[in-house]
Give the backbone structure.
Amino acid sequence: MRLLLPLLLAVWVSAPFGCCSLPTSSCLQPPAKWCSSLDSAVQCGVLKQCLESDFSRSRRTEEPVQVGLYYESLCPGCRKFLTEMLFPTYLLLDIMSVTLVPYGNAQETPVAQKYTYECQHGKQECLGNMIETCIMNMTDMAFPIIFCMESSADVIGSAESCLKVYAPDLSMDKVMSCVNGDMGMQLMHQNALQTKALNPPHQYVPWITINGVHTEDLQEKAMSSLFTLVCSMYKVQLMSLI
């Protein structure tokens, strides 16, 4: 999915007379998986663009800028940042990695060797947090799925349709088995531990870290132009190697 926007732009530019080269009838993969294998790239007519993208990544030696988002699935500000800033920047820049931690201001209570959760926006938010957490543990297409959910009017109700688009092999039944089972509980407990370990402790959501660090200056820059911030941080990392 990360390659989709640059890939489509490359196909458009390289096509004669500016006409976008559409995938052939033998292309059975969704756009997010066009570069997932050599066969898919050939069938979908994007082999050149996939190879060029892989070559570019192979020449990079510096570690990507790590962007962490501590958020809540039904928090309006979190949803806005994830869908309008974080995900678009992630698509455009392959010099960044993203860690999503859906927990935020939730409260965890141990009960008989298990945990219960209360969320700022109620039980539905706890469910949304759990669904997204389980999806992250079950597919490498988690970020596009979560973007799909968070950009929908109904975050939780859209989960199944988003799965069908980006991870058709992963059923909603499997996700809910995780949500309602011990696995989901343990995964959410890890989210709670990660959030509680933040230094400084988070005061609000969305709470953004860059390379594991949070400052008000970094937060403001990430909220206003994450693209500019990541590029500047990457340049600093490169300069430190010279």
Strands lie at 65-71, 96-102, 107-111, 114-118, 207-210. The longest strand covers residues 65-71.
